[in-house]
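Write out the 3D structure for:
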Amino acid sequence: MILDRFRVTGKVAVVTGAGRGIGAGAAVALAEAGADVVISSRTKTDLDAVAARVAGTGRRAHVVPADLSDPAAAAALAQAAVGEFGRVDIVVNNVGGTYPRPLLDTTPEFLEEAFRFNVSTAHALTTAAVPLMTDGGTVVNISSNMGRVAGRGFAAYGTAKAALAHYTRLAAYDLAPRIRVNAVAVGSVATSALEVVVNNPEIKARMEADTPLRRLGEVEDIAAAIVYLASPAGSFVTGKVLEVDGGLQAPNLELGLPDL
């Protein structure tokens, strides 16, 4: 059965930024596909709610509250998985994000912070997990369509996500054939990060009109892509960035920043 190739029964996944949004959706989807999960973010109450959803699938969740802007905290999750479940097979580097800021207000420190939060954390967890992936494994990085298209105000975020996309290609080449590394380039998804948009009918309608598929993404759209890349269904895929963005070829949210 082809659907069996999308199962990860008996595997253990680590998902960062798993308290809500894409991270929470990924954790629950991987559990539904058969994995136990280590979930981490800053807020324990959010993680406990996700853990309850995981338990509802019949799988187990290990909650690790942590400030994942610290690469060392991200790296520690690999050992946490082995300590709790005896193994680690799947890493989903979802934590990240950076607020928009005009280019001339983007200090070197702000740019470096964006790189650390979006790239260094992923590298730290990946390099900590790979030696523990004794049966092989998969890494899925969450990038963004802003890593390949240009929009005002996204110099730090877009640069960091572009770096994460190319990091994916480079890491895949280094770690083949035993470890697969892929990424999902996410478009506009209706999560709490876009709460202002989702709750503003005018802005939401404009963004939908500027998206070829005429809607915002749902968490499940991204979670399904993650399961594909992490499972045997994606076993012949590595070093690729899967664009799950509704067909965007340009930003669908303009911040209205003026010319110089």
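The helical segments are 21-32, 44-55, 71-85, 108-129, 155-175, 195-198, 201-209, 219-230.
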